């Protein structure tokens, strides 16, 4: 299936590592241009250079996305380089463990800044350009918004808000033919996941316990599986899909986990 992404300019926040890296690579494999925006310049360059070495197109933009001015910088740099924006993938985020007991009002607000505000800020600054191209937005959420996890109020609140904003933006942007969808991962092996599992007392046992409860093939989802659905949603092949929250999680969130 030709996804029709040739020379489409698509911003991927956190596009240097993990799920974001897989999305950037698949955009480029489909002929699109991946604009990789993230806090670590060396990571961004490494992934962009790897894509270019494979014959694809990519641009690296350093941005600490918790800062409003850096969100604007990402949009300005993209337009300066290519003159248009065809898609925005809001992906950057981290489960930062700001709980009710363990956290504080200040850390809670900081977590919203790091996990939620930039989803709005980038969509806000990209909107004039998305209106021109009838581009679209894909957000990466988390099953935590539905299931809870404990000890992560800021991250859970951010991901819950992202689900709400998906519906809200899909409605607001109907007049412009801009589609907005969200992809929900549950358990995906990425640098972030590795750091998180290793922060627990018995990481190996915990990983085995989690994996054994993933209904479909009792295995983790791959970053590429998240990326394939994301890139399909970015493409015109999903031209009548908007306001949807898609769980790419091997049934983890909704199927009966006692079966495995
Ligand atoms: P990852 O491996 O840590 O990659 C995320 C990338 O985004 C990193 O390069 C990170 O930079 C960057 N980043 C994060 N927050 C940023 C910020 N505020 N400003 C600039 N750069 C930022 O994470 P991942 O596991 O691929 O997760 C990607 C998305 O999937 C997140 O929204 C996460 O909530 C969601 N998700 C993941 C899983 C999973 O199982 N992995 C499950 C549910 C949801 P640094 O490395 O320098 O921090």
From TrEMBL:
<keyword id="KW-0560">Oxidoreductase</keyword>
<dbReference type="GO" id="GO:0016491">
    <property type="term" value="F:oxidoreductase activity"/>
</dbReference>
<dbReference type="InterPro" id="IPR002347">
    <property type="entry name" value="SDR_fam"/>
</dbReference>
<dbReference type="InterPro" id="IPR020904">
    <property type="entry name" value="Sc_DH/Rdtase_CS"/>
</dbReference>
<dbReference type="Pfam" id="PF13561">
    <property type="entry name" value="adh_short_C2"/>
</dbReference>
<dbReference type="InterPro" id="IPR036291">
    <property type="entry name" value="NAD(P)-bd_dom_sf"/>
</dbReference>
<comment type="similarity">
    <text>Belongs to the short-chain dehydrogenases/reductases (SDR) family.</text>
</comment>
<protein>
    <submittedName>
        <fullName>L-fucose dehydrogenase</fullName>
    </submittedName>
</protein>
